[in-house]
Write a structure and sequence with these properties.
By secondary structure, the protein is an alpha+beta fold. The protein has 3 domains: 3-77, ATPase, nucleotide binding domain (Nucleotidyltransferase, domain 5); 88-217, Sandwich (Substrate Binding Domain Of DNAk, Chain A, domain 1); 219-315, Substrate Binding Domain Of Dnak, Chain:A, Domain 2, CATH 1.20.1270. Helices cover 38% and strands 20% of the residues. It contains 8 helices and 13 strands. The strands form 4 sheets. Strands 12-11-10-7-13 form a 5-stranded mixed β-sheet, with no helix packed on it. A 4-stranded antiparallel β-sheet has the order 5-4-8-9, with no helix packed on it. The relative contact order is 0.11.
Length: 335
């Protein structure tokens, strides 16, 4: 008679564990609250879900609910002063980055007030502006989440991709007001936006967005992995092309032809969405580009940009200090 109701108990418990990043074995005790915990089947399911027999039934399951409601009412009326209620952000907050993915800065269920900083970079050479797109949601791809706002940071000094450092800071106060600031570290130029509607979303909409993320989790993960693979491949190809240009005639003709063939093959595979083919072409390029290091060593070359290797930490486009390449809109200030 109640089978369908009992089956519904597992999902919220498993979700609570996932949100807390805990395994059932990490939970030492289960505090039973609410009149339904007297049902033997509910107690049996609780033991099974949390893999423990340690159920705390010492409190009155009915009274504790009423007492909690009374305290909450007292806090809202201003009659109770010595209780602090900690609110959390219902959905993750982040920005759109290279490949149209959402990079989260503040994870959902984070206690507020809170703030988080992260360093991003440019996706193109001599990019002089970026557009910061602020997102809310749990999906992997930016287009599937809620856009809270966007703004431009102008005046970035001309430099190869990956060199400029743009610090993005999210500050979420106790009232749910989100302030997003972007600062270009070399020039100190700043731009910011204040978003008052980040918490102005109904419980029904929050649940809908969470359920949507769960339903599409497998497909979203595959899309994210494909984008990450493409981003990594494009970064390695960029580095190899740059090294070939810098080393010029120091690279033997046979090695150059081999590397250029591998580059062409990777460029061709990047036009499609076959992740395995892209990874194979990337590995082929990385193996071929190993000859660049041999050529550099033979010629006694130690220029910046050659020492780090493809995708390494060399100057001129590689990532530094956990810099994340961001696909930002390019704007020309001269227009």
């Amino acid at each position: 008679l109640c089978k369908d109701l009992f089956e519904r108990l597992a999902a919220p418990c498993e979700k609570a564990l996932a949100d807390a990043k805990l395994k059932p074995s990490d939970v030492q005790e289960i505090v039973m609250v609410g009149g339904s915990i007297r049902i033997p089947k509910v107690q049996e399911l609780a033991k099974k879900i949390f893999q423990t027999d340690n159920l705390d039934k010492s409190i009155n399951p009915d009274e504790v609910v009423a007492i909690g409601a009374a305290i909450q009412g007292g806090v809202l009326m201003g009659d109770v002063k010595n209780v602090v209620l900690l609110d959390v952000t219902p959905l993750s907050l982040g920005v759109e980055t290279l490949g149209g993915v959402m990079t989260k800065l503040i994870e959902r269920n984070t206690t507020i007030p809170t703030s988080k900083k992260e360093i991003f970079s440019t996706a193109q050479d001599n990019q002089n502006a970026v557009t910061i797109v602020v997102l809310q949601g749990e999906r992997q791809m930016a287009a599937d989440n809620r856009v809270l706002g966007r703004f431009d940071l102008q005046g970035i000094a001309a430099a190869p991709r990956g060199v400029p450092q743009v610090e993005v800071e999210f500050s979420l106060d106790a009232n749910g007001i989100l302030n997003v600031m972007a600062t270009e570290k070399a020039t100190g130029k700043k731009q910011e936006i204040k978003i008052t509607g980040s918490s102005g979303i109904s419980k029904e909409e929050v649940e809908r967005m969470r359920k949507d993320a769960e339903d599409h989790a497998t497909a979203d993960k595959a899309r994210r992995e494909l984008v990450d693979t493409k981003n990594r491949a494009e970064q390695v190809a960029y580095q190899v092309k740059k090294q070939l240009e810098e080393m010029g005639a120091k690279v033997p003709a046979e090695s150059r032809n081999k590397i250029e063939s591998a580059l062409s093959n990777l460029d061709d595979k990047l036009k499609g969405d076959d992740q395995a083919a892209i990874e194979a072409a990337l590995n082929n390029l990385m193996n071929a580009s190993g000859e660049l290091q041999q050529a550099a060593g033979a010629a006694g070359a130690g220029e910046p940009g050659a020492a780090g290797g493809p995708g390494g930490s060399a100057d001129g486009g590689a990532k530094k200090d956990d810099v994340i390449d961001a696909e930002y809109e390019v704007t020309d200030e001269k227009k």
